[in-house]
Amino acid sequence: DKHTGIFSRSNTLVILLLSNAGLFLVDHIHFQYNGFLSGILLLSIGSLAQGNFMLASVWFSVLLNLKHIYLYIAPAYGIYMLRSYCFQSSKDGSILWKSFSLTRLVSLGIAVLANVAIAFGPFIHSGQLSQVISRLFPFKRGLCHAYWAPNSWAVYNMADKLLVVAGKQLGLLDSSSAVASMTGGLVQDITHTVLPNISPLATAVITLISMVPALVKLWLSPHSVTMFLRCLVLCAWSSYLFGWHVHEKAVLLIILPMAILAVVSKQEAKYYIITSITGHFSLFPLLFGAVELPSKLFLHLSHSLLATQTLTTTSFCKLEKLYLFLSIPVFLWCEVLHSSTGLDTRLPFLPLLLYSLYAAVGIISTYLRVYRDFLLT
Q1: What's the whole-model pTM score?
Q2: In terms of C-beta density within 10 A (0-12 exposed, 13-18 middle, 19 or more buried), how is residue 310 classed?
Q3: pLDDT digits (tens, 9 = 90+) for 182-200
Q4: Whole-Å CA distances, 12 to 9, 15, 152, 264
């Protein structure tokens, strides 16, 4: 079921990466620098593909020190390098426990710690490490980012809102008990009215638990860069769906590695198209000015068209086609009709809510399907 598109796999991958709408929207119109970070990630993955584990560890530790969001995928790196570099396997693929190499493990550790020492040494010397840590992990910013990344907590927040409305209608809640603290569009800690409040520790535990099956599968599938990439994507995806204060831009950590898998098999090509279209669409609220509307629409449609034309996929079912088609009315309402009807003054958060919930359906459902296929591989 290999890729059989009009271009070679390498050329197709280049097209997908260079035309990525998310990188254009976030880096060149917003204010981020994900492009060169993604390049370092690709260098690390490429080093692993060539069997150069030391160089891969150096590149990844550099990447981690440049932006700590790549902690999302660190478990996949840790498991793959430990299993495939520090242990050997028998002919049937089972692990040879006695083959464990402490030297290799220490060499990986030195490569990583050397980068960490260079990055954090000056702050430790000046006694400012605690200030750095507090900014790297701002737990007081709240469960969700101001724009509600389309993850499980967006659905959780909406469920709480619906329960509040139902409780008021049924007389179970006092009308003054519900405070709209999560739809103000502000970066702040939020509280739920009906459902339990979620702590940073809870999100960390849920995220790690969601990664465990993928990491176990990776442990049982050594020396396969393809399996490593699949696990890496799932680790990024789990962190995106269940992490604390996830930025909507973090969807790029899922989409960009998926582009490599999209040229591996037709099924993964279909998953890539659904995820990239949905993920890039979820970034639209970042560019809220009317002058930016043509640019973001052109970039989004261009990449979607290039992906569908260069990739060979399995067929899309009617439900998948319907879901992708529904992005059109969501777009029209959020970008045109919401303000023209005057609701932008009474319900300013509604477009963000619609974007988030629409995208959450596609991202969560595709995550479950990708995870299922990975475990059954």
Answers
A1: 0.91
A2: buried
A3: 544 444 567 788 889 888 8
A4: 5, 5, 32, 11
